[in-house]
Amino acid sequence: MWRQMRFFGLTVGRIILFWLLSATATLFDGFGMAMFLPVLEFVEKAMDVTALASQSPMWDKLIRVFNWVGVKISLLSLLTVAVGTVLCRVVLIYARQIYSAWLSQQVLHTVRSKLMTAYLNMNYGTFARHPNGAVINILTTEAQRVGGGFSSLLSLISNTVVVLCFLLVLMWLSILMTLFAALFLSLAGVIVLYYMRHTRKCSNLVHAANDTFSRMVLERLGAFRLVKLTGTVHRESEKISLASGSVRDTNYWMTKLQSRVDLLLEPLVLLAGGVILYFAVSQFGMTLSQLGLFMLILLRLMPLSKELLRSRQAWVGSLGSFDAVLRDLDWTRAHHEGRGGRMRFEAVRENIHL
Fold it and tell me: How far lies 268's CA from each of 86, 257, 309, in Å?
């Protein structure tokens, strides 16, 4: 696994930097959302700090922190802390997205460069028998899909961290309500996982169709004179059209699977929101301020969960390209051109005659 990560240009430093950006942004995000609870309670209790301190240990600690920095607790100061924390999170998320985009392009660049070097180091006999179309397909289409898949993987990792952080805040508000919401929302995940199995299979079919089409196009272009001389233009055009149709059908199938996930998630998310709101009021007896923050975080979680599932499906959809690139790399290295022969050169005995 580490060999594969190094091949794609993933060093320890780059992975740590991405994790630090994700974790810091998530920390600010979770703290910023949690700060809205004191704001709502402050308004709900008519700004009576003494009453709030007597009812909640959290407020007692909050008062000590504000007194330590020399700031009076007010609606403005509480909102400033909450909004300021969220703004810091926005800056960090921007930095993470920029770094993620650069890292994805770096992976794409590394794959293309290393594969091309491996091809050039192959022995000529084996390379001459290898279809040029397969080489072009790996260096362009499959490498591009690897870069997109890696981008989805980074999005999957960062969104997972954010979702876990929000779940911790929700459990701080109400453990039972959070478990109920997680159980209900997991049903949507089960439905989506059904389509994930088909996505992996479709990914391999997309690679096979792209490989066949690239090989056929290069072979026909290389034999253009022969095609014209033998009068087989119509027959060869039909073969190319069939190969192109296969690419069209497999990519369409992949897009259709992803669209079905979106189609199912929208009504499921809306239904989950309504059910959770009903049980929060009728069964779990949450206060107005707790319910407000709970629903605010839940509204943030729903699109995040949707994006999480979409990223996972895109990552699974690119695994066929990852396998193809690594398989081709192993094949090229297995046919590496040796730098020396078995016969040893001693010296020139007489002369070199031209």
Answer: 28, 17, 13
